[in-house]
Amino acid sequence: MRTAGCVILFFFMFLSVSSAYPGWMRQYKPCKQLVLYFHDIIYNGQNAANATAAIVAAPEGANLTILAGQFHFGNIAVFDDPITLDNNLHSPPVGRAQGMYIYDTKDTFTSWLGFTFVLNSTKHQGTINFIGADPIMVKSRDISVVGGTGDFFMHRGIATIMTDAFEGDVYFRLRVDVKFYECW
Ligand SMILES: *[C@@H]1O[C@H](CO)[C@@H](O)[C@H](O)[C@H]1NC(C)=O
Ligand SMILES: *[C@@H]1O[C@H](CO)[C@@H](O)[C@H](O)[C@H]1NC(C)=O
Ligand SMILES: *[C@@H]1O[C@H](CO)[C@@H](O)[C@H](O)[C@H]1NC(C)=O
């Protein structure tokens, strides 16, 4: 009798402990997902017509036409990049990625991203706001999707970003897999 009581007691203790940490078991599934690409062409003194990004801050001893040494630490770039549905720079843009990146790590290539997707196409109207640390050398990394407007009113989630291509310090293309876990 007493052992049975103990077993039941432990069963309920287990239940209450496991329900206190639901994250252990829950499988999160996005309520909405979209994959987009954006293309960044950094001004290098010769490509004014095509450049979509400008270095606006550089550490002492560096300049605004070439990213600084020591993992670009201290550089800040502002960008207004075309967004496309596929990985072709010349595809019709569906919006602009606008914001900045800050190189904020001295011993590896990491930038801090803060930008908005301003989408204006037949498929999507609205904005999506992104923030987070981008360890560029890692193949696939996650940043936060902190909110949105229009079609993305009050949406939040995670964006998985991958460097799809790069050419020296002048061009790179990011693949952004936006996964919303909160949709309205
Ligand atoms: C700008 O892009 C066009 C088309 O890709 C290319 O032909 C041209 O050489 C580029 N101009 C500069 C200044 O990079
Ligand atoms: C910018 O810095 C780079 C590297 O130190 C140097 O080669 C280049 O001449 C500088 N450009 C200007 C415009 O000062
Ligand atoms: C979206 O595109 C339409 C058609 O090109 C244009 O009239 C409108 O001003 C654009 N809206 C924004 C917010 O850029």
UniProtKB/TrEMBL annotation:
Signal sequence annotation: 1-20
Keyword annotations: Apoplast, Secreted, Signal
Compartment(s) of residence: Secreted, Extracellular space, Apoplast
InterPro entries: Allene_oxi_cyc_Dirigent, Dirigent
GO CC annotation, single: apoplast
Pfam families documented for this protein: Dirigent (PF03018)
Job of this protein: Dirigent proteins impart stereoselectivity on the phenoxy radical-coupling reaction, yielding optically active lignans from two molecules of coniferyl alcohol in the biosynthesis of lignans, flavonolignans, and alkaloids and thus plays a central role in plant secondary metabolism.
PANTHER family according to UniProt: DIRIGENT PROTEIN
Similarity comment: family membership: Belongs to the plant dirigent protein family.
Protein's recorded name: Dirigent protein
Originating species: Dovyalis caffra
